[in-house]
Amino acid sequence: MRILFLGDIVGRAGRDAVIARVPELRKRLSLDVVIANAENASHGFGLSAAIARDLSACGVDVMTLGNHSWDRKDLVAEIDGLPNVVRPLNYPPGTPGQGSTVFTLADGRRVLVANVMGRLFMDPLDDPFRMTQELLARHRLGMTVHAAIIDVHAEASSEKWALGHALDGKASLVIGTHTHTPTADHRILTRGTAFQSDAGMCGDYDSVIGMQKEAALARFVRKMPGERLQPAEGEATVAGLMIETDDATGLARKIAPLRQGGILSQTIPDF
Amino acid sequence: MRILFLGDIVGRAGRDAVIARVPELRKRLSLDVVIANAENASHGFGLSAAIARDLSACGVDVMTLGNHSWDRKDLVAEIDGLPNVVRPLNYPPGTPGQGSTVFTLADGRRVLVANVMGRLFMDPLDDPFRMTQELLARHRLGMTVHAAIIDVHAEASSEKWALGHALDGKASLVIGTHTHTPTADHRILTRGTAFQSDAGMCGDYDSVIGMQKEAALARFVRKMPGERLQPAEGEATVAGLMIETDDATGLARKIAPLRQGGILSQTIPDF
Amino acid sequence: MRILFLGDIVGRAGRDAVIARVPELRKRLSLDVVIANAENASHGFGLSAAIARDLSACGVDVMTLGNHSWDRKDLVAEIDGLPNVVRPLNYPPGTPGQGSTVFTLADGRRVLVANVMGRLFMDPLDDPFRMTQELLARHRLGMTVHAAIIDVHAEASSEKWALGHALDGKASLVIGTHTHTPTADHRILTRGTAFQSDAGMCGDYDSVIGMQKEAALARFVRKMPGERLQPAEGEATVAGLMIETDDATGLARKIAPLRQGGILSQTIPDF
Amino acid sequence: MRILFLGDIVGRAGRDAVIARVPELRKRLSLDVVIANAENASHGFGLSAAIARDLSACGVDVMTLGNHSWDRKDLVAEIDGLPNVVRPLNYPPGTPGQGSTVFTLADGRRVLVANVMGRLFMDPLDDPFRMTQELLARHRLGMTVHAAIIDVHAEASSEKWALGHALDGKASLVIGTHTHTPTADHRILTRGTAFQSDAGMCGDYDSVIGMQKEAALARFVRKMPGERLQPAEGEATVAGLMIETDDATGLARKIAPLRQGGILSQTIPDF
Ligand SMILES: [Fe+2]
Ligand SMILES: [Fe+2]
Ligand SMILES: [Fe+2]
Ligand SMILES: [Fe+2]
Ligand SMILES: [Fe+2]
Ligand SMILES: [Fe+2]
Ligand SMILES: [Fe+2]
Ligand SMILES: [Fe+2]
């Protein structure tokens, strides 16, 4: 199966780039599934149901979230009506929405997509190690699902790498989000799980992680609340990772980063 | 000037790879200066004077440190005798060692190298924004120094990007360290400063940020102190960034990542 | 000199209690100076200029702030016109307002009042140890000022105690704020400085640190943003510490906590 | 039932004071049960089995722990043989030891004692709210147990207060530990649960939370590892809280702090 995962979509610049490029990428790369982290899609903070539908319409099959899940209060009410939106699975029991979903392709193949938050330097949610292992014990790769994608929304590289190794052999892809910075450490781990500690962001990189520079810099320097942070509006780079999996085992065979548009160095998978 | 900056050297694997490769890289890439972060060079924790000398001998001109600066207590006593070792400049007044140094090439060109720590999710040291700006007001790029390299040892991508923009036009290179993960966001900022939010590590990437997997994973899962963390001992990837600067202005003209050896995707500058 | 310091005034309940009680307390306890932390006076978040004037009018001579200093944006513009309001002195240079003030009594005696923020588990500001020591080197107790009061607005008890010892003999009183919990560890330190690690809050204690229980509890349990936190509105306890100092040395001779009104155990200084 | 809870016992000074005073306090106050937090009993860091036995022998019926539970590695092996030692119940499944115990008095009355850690500014363990509520659903106050004591080992006053309200009516006492600072906010909550946000420490208060001043202060000021922290060795104050409960309901009828010996203000329950 040919899968593209896109990092945090930030604001209008990020959305416009994703909406413009995903249709052609699906064709050019013969993609079977496209997943994107959309926690910053609505003006940098959260995801509205309307924007979730726009992203679906352009070819994003499943959207994941993160610490900004509930920035848009309307999503709290609407998330249960959005079957292809996934929020972190380690929120407490009773949290609206779902922590994972099984997306079924037109040809019947099944893809588990889950979202989990790290705890180091972040909100202390339930244990991401235990919860992802329990999830992957229920959805067996190569048995009940053809592929399994885990979006690890976390700050610390150590926690992301640890989770990658913990799930190695049980997921097709463990991919980090949240730092808004693409990493060059993508690889297939020992037991066949593809890994990248951060997919990067789909946003304007002439910024502070997607936000306009002046206001973001002022917060660090002045230590006062200032103007509200606004997403940067220059051309976005669409950033993510593509993998190809073996449908029999669900494990990864090929892996390559993708960076298209905007000011970052450009790369596109060649398989 | 042709400059190579290498990310955190971790343990024997990292040292061996740096010592083996730097001599040939200096020739092949016609490097004028090589700088490396060495805060994890001694068995993953700190830098001993003996290892500092070994790294110097192989062609590392200046070494920077970070939150592990004082893991080796002997360095506290010895650092003042090591003119090419730089510790974070935002430690309190009275801290042993120096926060920056001006390294002079054989041909007389002068390169400022400084090390500064971020404060987000890290120890609250003095203000890295103010201190680097004061430093670069004293050492004017293209005037008193031909190049200026700032190693921003920090956890949060936002703080690193903010510091990059804050120093844009005043330094040749602002480069992150500490996450032990190379980022694919290298670029030359608007006013001519090269930037990468993390140089990555020189270490074995089949690990948790350079440490053996089992013990590092156990800490996250079991929440008990366990075995001491040990550096992973597989072949290291030497990871860093190369830039070429204009000696007249000190600003960057070219930029490219370098990843050689080990299990990461390989790349070498082609200029 | 007879000095009363009151902890964080929270919302209407806290203000009403302070305004009702301070005039009688000034008389009953023959107070020379009353200081109060007012960072939560305006509906729990910040201090408006109007409320600062109300508190002044009732007999609060100097008000201190903390991490909520700028919750009311209007104070940023107005603080320079409020000579008896003090914000943390370890904000960066250029921050509006003042980090300390010398309040002069009708009889000419001078009282230094400063506010400083801790850094452990809080925003990384400038070094509170260095800055308070520099301040107290400029304002010599028993020489240029008759008393010196340092409000240490901090989370960690260890940092507050460390600062108490660091300033012992140089200040009349080092008193903690921010936890909204009165501590029973008040005492006069070895070299004569009075100390209490937290003065407590002037607010309704049938609450979560002054905020209504249900919403505050929901945040911990549900891990979602919910209703906005609102100050609890039951009768407040006015909580603080009284000291008597020797005008010749500025050091403390007597110390006793004060808790009046509301549901906490009641106590009033008997000297 | 007449219950005394003592805060964190720190080092030899704390142990000596507890061992000297508990026998007379049991008599004088007609105590039925004595519980103490012992996470710092062994030279400030952890609890050895030998010291656990010494504390038992002097009349401490149950000991609780905290973030220092495993500082003494030998306790990991020995804790399962110590039926009256309780470690935080929100460690991951599989952690040695027990998170709660039911202590049976000579007359057959049963007292549940549990230990739980907060997560704000601390290690992200399992949810303390959910786990204590599940525990108290299994052990019904006034039904299966005559009293229930919950030691909330936590940094943030807000989290302790929130947990107090969450358990109000379901426990006899919710008492904080960890800050090593006795608070003056003890009271019986609306539905009958006694509460104090911190019991304080049994240790020498001429210190930084029980550790010798110079080394503890140096860490804040110098930002370098220095001498190892050592417990202060002056006379300790035994600090804690006494409650009297109604055996029929398990709820609290009376509450008063206790501070005996050392340099803090002295108080002893008068009921
Ligand atoms: Fe994001
Ligand atoms: Fe995020
Ligand atoms: Fe490092
Ligand atoms: Fe580091
Ligand atoms: Fe406050
Ligand atoms: Fe505060
Ligand atoms: Fe403790
Ligand atoms: Fe503790």
Secondary-structure map with pairings?
The structure is a homotetramer of 271-residue chains.
Chain A: E1 2-6, E2 8-9, H1 11-28, E3 33-37, H2 49-58, E4 62-64, H3 73-78, E5 85-86, E6 100-104, E7 110-117, H4 128-138, E8 147-153, H5 157-167, E9 173-177, E10 187-188, E11 194-196, E12 201-202, H6 213-222, E13 238-245, E14 252-260
Parallel strand pairs in A: 1-3, 2-12, 3-4, 4-5, 7-8, 8-9, 9-11
Antiparallel strand pairs in A: 1-13, 6-7, 10-11, 13-14
The complex binds fe (ii) ion (8 copies).
One fe (ii) ion is lined by residues 39, 66-68, 153, 178 of chain B.
Helix content of chain A: 10-25%
As a whole number of angstroms, the C-alpha radius of gyration of chain A is 17 Å
Order of helices and strands of chain A: EEHEHEHEEEHEHEEEEHEE
Number of helices of chain A: 6
For the largest sheet of chain A, list the strands in their spatial order. 5-4-3-1-13-14
Strand content of chain A: 15-25%
Bound molecules: fe (ii) ion
State the end-to-end distance of chain A: 12 Å
Structural class of chain A: alpha/beta
Question: Largest interface here, residues on each chain?
Answer: C-D, 44 and 43 residues
